[in-house]
């Protein structure tokens, strides 16, 4: 489990391109037969990728969290961004098709991840945060979440937002999680942009082809920086940072937040005139 420390905005202003990437970009999440985890001190969240190859993979405990098992004091939201698979939670199995989501609450001990077809493996993206109580495990099929259409072709941000784990959806202690899919011809996300000092956020960009690139904007509104990203890479956004971007083609991204509340609309809007 890789450890990433929280950063002050004054410190982030001094970072080189490579330092920005080392602090905020998660470049390799999906490796056949492995679990890749990054522990961020931003609200003590864990971002991870699991790609089973052949046999099942168990998510166990790690010294960084000093727990007998992974969800002893945590909760987790998981999306499958690959082929069909199965997640077993304390012996109960849940079928996970592409873009299906599952929430698993505090206290569940045995988590097993499987791919149905090794030639088209499941790829499980997880986002975990500390939990004070236990909410029930809940699986949601992507096909069962209609989503909200937003944006317009004229502003290159026509998209559908599916809120899945949030205040009015699947219940959690502090995780809010969902997926946004941009329509063909649209490339901008979260613009006009915002911050929310009450929560950190992480984006996982998906459905980009091999040669496409995402230009993710971050930093304080008056001190913006950018990260050039590829498909299936994640970015950690501190509470003080904007988080938005544009790509060379349309794409989807999984957003996940943790912190003070689960209110999706709790955002501090940033006007275009403020951006530098």
UniProtKB/TrEMBL annotation:
<dbReference type="InterPro" id="IPR007045">
    <property type="entry name" value="KduI"/>
</dbReference>
<feature type="binding site">
    <location>
        <position position="194"/>
    </location>
    <ligand>
        <name>Zn(2+)</name>
    </ligand>
</feature>
<comment type="similarity">
    <text>Belongs to the KduI family.</text>
</comment>
<dbReference type="Pfam" id="PF04962">
    <property type="entry name" value="KduI"/>
</dbReference>
<keyword id="KW-0479">Metal-binding</keyword>
<keyword id="KW-0862">Zinc</keyword>
<dbReference type="InterPro" id="IPR027449">
    <property type="entry name" value="KduI_N"/>
</dbReference>
<comment type="pathway">
    <text>Glycan metabolism; pectin degradation; 2-dehydro-3-deoxy-D-gluconate from pectin: step 4/5.</text>
</comment>
<dbReference type="InterPro" id="IPR014710">
    <property type="entry name" value="RmlC-like_jellyroll"/>
</dbReference>
<dbReference type="InterPro" id="IPR021120">
    <property type="entry name" value="KduI/IolB_isomerase"/>
</dbReference>
<comment type="function">
    <text>Catalyzes the isomerization of 5-dehydro-4-deoxy-D-glucuronate to 3-deoxy-D-glycero-2,5-hexodiulosonate.</text>
</comment>
<feature type="binding site">
    <location>
        <position position="201"/>
    </location>
    <ligand>
        <name>Zn(2+)</name>
    </ligand>
</feature>
<dbReference type="GO" id="GO:0016853">
    <property type="term" value="F:isomerase activity"/>
</dbReference>
<feature type="binding site">
    <location>
        <position position="196"/>
    </location>
    <ligand>
        <name>Zn(2+)</name>
    </ligand>
</feature>
<dbReference type="InterPro" id="IPR011051">
    <property type="entry name" value="RmlC_Cupin_sf"/>
</dbReference>
<protein>
    <recommendedName>
        <fullName>4-deoxy-L-threo-5-hexosulose-uronate ketol-isomerase</fullName>
        <ecNumber>5.3.1.17</ecNumber>
    </recommendedName>
</protein>
<keyword id="KW-0413">Isomerase</keyword>
<feature type="binding site">
    <location>
        <position position="243"/>
    </location>
    <ligand>
        <name>Zn(2+)</name>
    </ligand>
</feature>
């Amino acid at each position: 489990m890789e450890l990433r420390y929280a950063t002050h905005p004054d410190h982030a202003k001094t970072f080189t391109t490579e330092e920005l990437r080392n602090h905020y970009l998660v470049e390799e999440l999906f490796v056949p037969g492995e679990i890749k985890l990054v522990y961020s001190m931003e609200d003590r969240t864990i971002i991870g990728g699991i790609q089973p190859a052949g046999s099942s993979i168990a998510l166990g405990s790690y010294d960084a969290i000093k727990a007998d098992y992974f969800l002893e004091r945590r909760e987790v939201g998981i999306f499958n961004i690959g082929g069909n698979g199965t997640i077993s939670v304390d012996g109960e199995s849940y079928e996970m098709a592409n873009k299906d989501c599952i929430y698993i609450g505090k206290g569940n001990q045995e988590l097993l991840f499987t791919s149905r077809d090794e030639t088209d493996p499941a790829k499980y993206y997880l986002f975990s945060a500390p939990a004070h109580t236990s909410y029930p495990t809940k699986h949601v099929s992507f096909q069962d979440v209609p989503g909200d259409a937003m944006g317009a072709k004229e502003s290159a941000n026509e998209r559908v937002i599916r809120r899945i784990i949030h205040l009015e959806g699947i219940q959690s202690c502090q995780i809010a999680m969902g997926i946004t899919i941009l329509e063909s011809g649209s490339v901008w996300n979260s613009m006009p942009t915002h911050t929310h000092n009450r929560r950190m956020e992480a984006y996982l960009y998906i459905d980009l082809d091999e040669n496409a690139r995402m230009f993710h904007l971050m930093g304080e509104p008056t001190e913006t920086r950018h990260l050039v990203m590829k498909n299936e890479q994640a970015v950690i956004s501190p509470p003080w940072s904007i988080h938005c971007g544009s790509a060379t083609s349309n794409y989807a991204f999984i957003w996940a937040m943790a912190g003070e509340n689960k209110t999706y609309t709790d955002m501090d809007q940033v006007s275009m005139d403020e951006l530098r």
